[in-house]
């Protein structure tokens, strides 16, 4: 039977996630905030980082591997920096707190860099980069990925993760430019999707332990992801991992816990966010109008054969967000069934 | 006749560059500083960004396209940010000033972001990222490249440059980890080198206007460089270009002047540097010892067939620096001849 998606209104999805979290003892305020960010991941088209992850988060909460009402503590603080200990809380709550703090500081100092440790998976990177962009700031977010899928360049031991970066820049008449990328050619979620669909992966996504192309996604556990640009992507993953992990006293390298396989061990996930106040460099109205001009310049430039349009990072995100705001979020029937079984287990109303 | 390299002591090279600049009216202090940074580019193995560029810089100075004794002006300033107008000075001098200012600010605020406009080519990116790393800080440097060689993804108009990023992290017993990468698969200098050597380029470096692989480096002007990771590298180049260019009121997109082809027009080159004080997050001794552990963890991990060792970014740079400090900098005979002709024209002692 085909996996027909059900179109779920965004508000319904948010309310569902909130009642699941509340049933696990999360406060009303935390549950609303966490649900808002998770449902937003689905709204913007980041299907692998939204409600899809809820059963896994709940499993971790029930196994004692995540504190639903963790208290955050500022471990170090300067005028333009802070290090937050997330107390093993949900990454969304930790990084929302960190991002708000970075924005508050940047309003005075011009820029702020806030790191976090003892956090957890926080959903798609763009959530946190986009927050400053809504207030005439530029946002940058980097995380240590929640499982290692990549060796150093030339190696076979998976010491590195996809360590993503997101950067968001506001405009006036166009969507914000939002880059949200893994440092690997393919994110691990794309490998899982290929396996589910019975598809072959293109060469260049993964290699096996002998360095040969691995194209059968069912053999993914025998190989590893490849970095973008070979040693360059390895360098980016390594350094982003150190900045988001090691510098904050968070896990990196062999310390990283595979949160897909293990729901009990504290992950000590690290992230950082930078907020840069546009006003400290330029008139925000002028800057945003410059970004509009860049949209125009790129999109109107001549194209290669076979390309219908030139896209800017964030364009597809904006289109999907509008579609799903109007028509609802497509949840595959299998996912819907999993979520409603979860609801039953938690004793809350289904979707 | 083969192009045997002459081994030139680093100090001799620095003194030579300084006297060339002095002969063009540059002050003693500026000439020493600029020569120190340019000779350092050769010392660390960045041959395409060191003394090799001197004739081009001098041509620009003589054509009135660069002010040897430009006054720098702080256009905007906050506790943790500044925007510097470089007055069309040499990029090395502008960015040395910007980096020192960023470090000074970061000592108090924890982090600082200093942008520059009306600057020029500043040599290799790692020069400026490495400065904070010598003082228990982390350095990040990004520039708008000085000529466009890449279209947006799917396009054919070269609106983007290689826009490099460098990030440097200090350690105790190992060299600093220093990433210094273009956002293209190959830097344009590598294309020129392939042409000089009569070599073919591998597929993946460049494509032509029909989207077909371009492997003959003599046809480079008919095609363009490819970004790392396809649309990901395009996104990085676009966003780094906006942050280093547009945000600072510097050139981006169609405004970028090809400084190889045009020595007269003001380039309005933009860059930015971030200094992050390690002490604002961790004990620097502990952090640097953590970086040593990461060196050890990566280098001792098992290898793919065909790899003799696993390298860290900055490892080769440190090896070359040591070799060249001991034995001198290899300058090809053709380059030496060009430099000594330049010396004759300027009326200064040759190398």
UniProtKB/TrEMBL annotation, chains A, B:
Family label: Belongs to the LDH2/MDH2 oxidoreductase family.
Assigned keywords, A-Z: Oxidoreductase
InterPro entries given in the database record: Mal/L-sulf/L-lact_DH-like_ah, Mal/L-sulf/L-lact_DH-like_NADP, Mal/L-sulfo/L-lacto_DH-like_sf, Malate/L-lactate_DH-like
Annotated GO MF terms: oxidoreductase activity
Species of origin: Parasedimentitalea marina
Protein name: Ldh family oxidoreductase
UniProt cross-references to Pfam families, sorted A to Z: Ldh_2 (PF02615)
């Amino acid at each position: 039977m085909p996996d027909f998606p059900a179109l779920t209104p965004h508000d319904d999805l948010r309310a569902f996630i909130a009642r699941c979290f509340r049933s696990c003892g999360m406060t009303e305020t935390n549950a609303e905030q966490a649900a808002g960010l998770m449902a937003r991941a689905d709204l913007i088209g980041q299907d692998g980082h939204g409600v899809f992850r809820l059963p896994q988060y709940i499993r971790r909460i029930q196994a004692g591997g995540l504190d639903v009402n963790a208290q955050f503590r500022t471990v170090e603080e300067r005028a333009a920096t802070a290090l937050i200990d997330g107390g093993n809380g949900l990454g969304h709550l930790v990084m929302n707190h960190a991002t708000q703090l970075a924005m508050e500081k940047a309003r005075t100092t011009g820029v702020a860099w806030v790191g976090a440790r003892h956090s957890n998976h926080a959903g798609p990177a763009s959530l946190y980069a986009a927050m400053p962009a809504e207030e005439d700031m530029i946002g940058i977010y980097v995380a240590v990925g929640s499982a290692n899928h990549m060796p150093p360049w030339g190696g076979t031991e998976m010491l590195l993760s996809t360590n993503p970066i997101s950067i968001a820049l506001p405009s006036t008449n166009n969507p914000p430019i939002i880059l949200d990328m893994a440092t690997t050619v393919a994110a691990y979620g794309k490998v899982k999707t290929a396996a589910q669909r019975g598809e072959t992966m293109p060469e260049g996504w993964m290699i096996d332990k002998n360095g040969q192309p691995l194209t059968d996604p069912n053999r993914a556990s025998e190989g590893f992801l490849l970095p973008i640009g070979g040693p360059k992507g390895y360098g980016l993953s390594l350094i982003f991992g150190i900045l988001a992990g090691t510098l904050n006293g968070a896990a990196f390298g062999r310390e990283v816990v595979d949160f897909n396989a293990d729901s009990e061990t504290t992950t000590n996930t690290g992230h950082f966010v930078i907020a840069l106040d546009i006003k400290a460099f330029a008139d925000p109205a002028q800057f945003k109008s410059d970004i509009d001009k860049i949209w125009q310049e790129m999109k109107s430039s001549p194209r290669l054969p076979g390309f219908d349009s030139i896209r800017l990072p964030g364009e597809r995100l904006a289109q999907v967000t509008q579609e799903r705001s109007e028509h609802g979020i497509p949840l595959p029937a299998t996912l819907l069934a999993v979520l409603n079984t979860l609801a039953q287990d938690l004793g809350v109303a289904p979707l």
